[in-house]
Amino acid sequence: MVDSNGLEKDKDQVQLKRTLSLIDLVAYGLAYISLVAALLTFGIVWDAANGLISLAYLLGAICIYFTAKSYSTMAAIHPNAGSVYGYTKMALGPFAGFLAGWLILLDYLLIPALIFILMAIGIQTLIPEISRPIWIIILVAFSSLINWRGIQVSTKISLTSVVIQILIVLGVIIFSYKALQGGAGTGSITLAPLYNPESFNFGNIFTATAICIISFLGFDAITTLSEEVKGDSTKLIGKAIMIVLFISAFSFIITTLFIGNLTIGFNVKDPSAAIYEILDHQIGTWSSITFAWLTAVFVSFTNALPMQAGVARVLFAMGRNKQLPAPLGLIHPKRKIPHIAMMVSTAISLCIALLMQNKVDILALFVSFGALAGFLMLHISVLVHLGIKKSNRQIYSHIIVPVFGIFTVLALFYCMHHDALILGGIWTLAGIAYGLYLQKKEKISLVITE
């Protein structure tokens, strides 16, 4: 049997419901990324970059471009809910595919936990009477309830959230400009957060860039919805990825440039809550409170929606192929969602958020390792499958892009914090061991349909 994209399907294979348009995909990606992400993690990246935060985001955007291009290339020939897991399995074989899925899960499982913590911190500044763990539980419960209603409902809420986030970002830029004109920070718009020879350090910049990657994560999650796109998903997925990357990169660089100028000369006490301190001191208490309320109401309760949906679909794809417990590959008969995978991923993210609620910086680094490891497998897949094996290769897309992508990922790994490398190494070894077990049980060598 062949589906609307020309892919052969097993007649018994469970299928997701195709309801999403290009606007839905872009909204999903931007909501996943969150246009206020650079503000919420401002203090962490500012410290890591030694003040050159806009430069870190610019380099992050350049690095992500190569990865986004490779994702677009693979999505065009293999529209599959498993994202990099499906791409690598097709290009390098079942075992490599399993390992790629295992590695990207470190990113997909941890980033919702990271967002739950960041949002809980923001809400707690408004209502300190309720503890951070309680807010985390409330946020998780809300996101789970919405996602349970189906991907179409969550994408509509995501679109509304994106519009409001654009207004929030514009408001921050406008009032930051007025504060600078009034003498706050540098007193004007300078390029100090983008270029300053006295602050530049190669190692610091690449460490900060590795953290910045987190803010861009979302364009890759769009590929997890390939089996839920109506129309030609081979074209829409790639188009949505590049649109999301351009909008988010522009937003992050501009906002950090303005806030960066406000921060110069200001001593941040708590990096995880830096934006609230900066707004409070440099613009006014009202701005900090307003920003906190807006992000709490219109971002906190919606930002994790696409994240939960994305990781659930990777677990679903791996469970459907028997490379994770088979129940993960089940679909709810009425709502047409991977309900078991969603419940499992939500439970894991909740536990991680509660355990790491006071270790945001370390958690951010762990997320980066998972993302970069997945990106590395993606670039290798493109290079091998299209750049080497195919005779009708395209020099730019199939060779130059993945080669540069591999180089940038390895450079970021080289500058990554040793704690993240240690945990990532342990996770990788555990994945290899489990993969060898599956191979021994002949679960990886099964004939797998996508």
Automatic annotation (TrEMBL):
Chief location category: membrane
Top-level taxon in the UniProt lineage: Bacteria
Q: Which UniProt keywords apply?
A: Membrane, Transmembrane, Transmembrane helix
Q: Which InterPro entries match?
A: AA-permease/SLC12A_dom, APC_superfamily
Instruction: Show where the Amino acid permease/ SLC12A domain sits.
Output: 48-411
Pfam families per the record? Answer: AA_permease
Bilayer-spanning residue ranges: 25-46, 52-68, 99-127, 133-150, 162-180, 200-219, 240-260, 291-316, 337-356, 362-388, 395-414, 420-438
Provide the protein's localization: Membrane
User: What is its membrane topology?
Assistant: Multi-pass membrane protein
UniProt xrefs under PANTHER family: AMINO ACID PERMEASE, AMINO ACID TRANSPORTER-RELATED
Instruction: From the Swiss-Prot or TrEMBL record, give the protein name.
Output: APC family permease
Q: What is the lineage of its organism?
A: Bacteria, Pseudomonadati, Pseudomonadota, Gammaproteobacteria, Moraxellales
